[in-house]
Amino acid sequence: MHELGIVRNIVAIVGDAAKGRRVHRVTLDIGKLSGVMPDAIAFCFETVAQGTMLEGATLEIRRIEGRARCDACGSEFTADTLFTPCSCGSRRFTRLQGEELNIKSMELEQEVA
Amino acid sequence: MCGHCGCGDKTGATVLNLQTGEKMTMGSHSHEHGPDHRHPHEHDHARNGGVGHTHDHEHQHQHESSHVHDHVHPDGSRHSHAHAHEMGHHDHGHGGDHGHQLRAAPAVVELETRILARNDALAAKNRAWFAGREILALNLVSSPGSGKTTLLERTIRDLKSELKFYVVEGDQATANDGERIRAAGAPAVQVNTGTGCHLEADMVARGLAELKPPPGSVVMIENVGNLVCPAMFDLGERAKVVILSVTEGEDKPLKYPHMFRAAEIMILNKTDLLPHVDFDVSRATANAREVNPDITVLLVSARSGEGLADWYGWLRREIGRAREAVFA
After folding, report:
1. Across residues A71-83, what is the average pLDDT?
2. What sign does the dihedral B274-B275-B280-B281 (CA atoms) show?
3. Residue A84 has pLDDT above 60, yes or no
4. What CATH architecture applies to the domain B14-23+116-240+307-327?
5. Residue B69 pLDDT more than 80?
6. B109 CB contacts (<8 Å, ≥6 apart)?
């Protein structure tokens, strides 16, 4: 259940960046090949956020599909698994996207002038 | 967990220095909250034991940044208070078009931060620390029971006249493995992760502070037996060594591709048992290469000693590379 540790990291990073302001929304980019289950993230988030500036915040998870560029033939292809080969048969490729585990943005309560 | 920011706790994680017997608990942490750190108050509109009220008031106010209005509670008391309309999400909970626009846009802050940025940064610090001391650090990962500790014991016994080994032992509980390593002749610290299913870079840093491995030594980090999470947490090692024993399935590389892709070398252990099990070495190797075409595969038996010469050869080459890498 490494998702719990990951959620703690999310809450820590966003909480620090919010500098005491309330957080209304957190947007994550989670690659389909990242090895992290979005459902488990969402499940842990509400609990971990309790008592922090993120309490009650909406969690938005954007899935990023796996893509790679073949080292042999140079073509780009979609990869559903971490080791999907290129259609030319090569297993050597450069990952372009799909392993993201990023906090994209947060939406904060605005300061009242 | 920290009530302010929920920062990753290491509840229950302890570091035991097996040389001194001293035990430390992790999780005491400090963090910098800016000087402007504050805790905004909340109020809900419930009084007298939680009885709510509805807003029953006329809308003659202007929606600038805030407004004041009166309203009446169920008990008949009346008061006025200010509303801030900062987010544009304020819900009055009553029908009717007010004909007003809330202009303030939500404050969206782009973060573009890796979720594991903190661990990555600490791992980079560990890596630089190792490099500066020409220390080879390896992260040993596997399922529980693959023979990591036995392989380490044997390696230490066979090579201790040649190499200085220091070991960070990770387990959820007990100092059993750390004691075994000590008995084999290497200084060790036992990190007990408590509920944690993997080692993290800060635990290793804490372990190193206790171990104090000298320049030119070899640091073996034996991770918690688990083929999932340890793949995600960089510890600052030069390479991950994944150990698969022939009593497991040949398809583990396909079932746990992250780990086998992150590893530089796969050690197939317990080869002395091959005559007694249905393990197909060539299939296991093909599966590992399907996930990671460049992975080195070695067949060893930590018990009989078969194949260990290849493992020691690989270790010596990596030690050479760790030294060359200092000025690379």
Report:
1. 96
2. positive
3. yes
4. 3-Layer(aba) Sandwich (3.40)
5. no
6. A17, A105, A106, A107, A108
Indicate the residue of B87, B112, B293 with minimum beta-carbon distance to A102. Answer: B112
**Please, are residues B288 and A89 in contact by the beta-carbon 8 Å criterion?**
no
Residue B59, helix vs strand vs coil: coil
**Dihedrals phi, psi of B46, to nearest 5 degrees:** -125, 135
A10/B115 touch (CB, cutoff 8 Å), yes or no:
yes
- Torsion sign (Cα): B176, B177, B178, B181: positive
Measure in Å the smallest separation between the Cα of B60 and chain A Cα atoms.
21
CATH class for the domain made up of A2-66+97-108: alpha beta
Query: In B, which residues are within 8 Å of A105 by CB distance?
Result: 108-112
Distance from CA of B162 to the nearest CA of A (A): 37
Q: Where are the domains of chain A?
A: 2-66+97-108
The question of ipTM being above 0.85 is answered as yes
Whether B257 and B290 have beta carbons less than 8 Å apart is answered as no
Q: Do A12 and B6 touch (CB under 8 A)?
A: yes
- C-alpha A96/C-alpha A76 separation (Å) is 9
